[in-house]
Amino acid sequence: MELDKEASAMRFIEKLVEHRVGVAAVAKVEKLAAKIGINETKLLELYVRAKNTISRSKFAAIPFSRRIVFLPQCLRSRDCPASLGEYGYVCKKCGRCGLQRIISKALGLGYKGAFILSGGTMVGRILKREKPSGCLGIACLKELVLGSFICEKFGTVPYCIALLRDGCVETNVDWGVVGQALSMSFDTV
Predict the structure, then answer these.
(1) Which residue in 23, 41, 144, 166 is deepest, having the highest Cβ count within 10 Å?
(2) Which among 82, 149, 150 has a CA at the least distance from the CA of 114?
(3) So what's the pLDDT on residue 24?
(4) Those residues with Cβ within 8 angstroms of residue 154's Cβ, 6 or more apart along the chain or in another chain
């Protein structure tokens, strides 16, 4: 009986996402989902999917020069030589991970900045300083949800890509999806 409730609630939430219902409606459903006992990861995935559905065309319309990208430090290689600076890690372009390619692509497209974050607390400081119109964020689900709230606070349109494997060391992401999102423009939506 509990599995039926969970399955029904998940189908309902998925329908909300598909029909581009606002994040406020999804937030209300979160309370119901918590009472029913829906898997937290599934709920976070749906939130990120809903947020991206709502933000996709807005993000695509923002010129590259008004965008930044946030990358998690956990995508770095275990033996990464990057140094920690005021706004995150500074890539040494050693080639031990895929971050250098993403940073180079973002900057080559004209992005305002690419930041390898040591933690989510830097997001607000960077948004305040850079004042981007759009932000591509790559992170674990919980950090994406938190980051999207912070972006909203600063009037920045977020677009999120979840890691394929969570953890704090040597995680993984679909680099092809990241490359596509970086290049997203009004012509590609």
Answers:
(1) 144
(2) 82
(3) 63
(4) 124, 127, 128, 131
Q: What is the spatial distance between Cα 145 and Cα 80, in angstroms, rounded to a whole number?
A: 27
The answer to whether 90 and 83 have CB atoms below 8 angstroms apart is yes
Residue 119's pLDDT is what?
Answer: 76
Pick the CATH number of 61-183 from 3.90.1200, 2.60.120, 2.40.50, 3.40.50: 3.40.50
158, β-bridge pairs: 135
Q: Is the model's pLDDT at 106 over the cut of 70?
A: yes
Listed in order, strand segments (DSSP E) in the chain are 67-72, 83-85, 88-90, 113-117, 134-139, 157-162
Structure tokens that stand for 73 in this block: 């430090």
pLDDT in tens, 151-178: 999 999 999 999 998 777 778 899 999 9
- Region of poorest pLDDT, from 8-12, 14-18, 19-23, 48-52: 19-23
For the chain, residues classed under CATH 3.40.50 are: 61-183
Tokens for 113? 């900045």
Predicted TM-score (pTM) of this structure: 0.80
Q: What pLDDT digit, counting tens, does each position of 107-132 carry?
A: 999 999 999 998 778 899 999 999 99
**Which 8-state DSSP code applies to residue 65?**
G
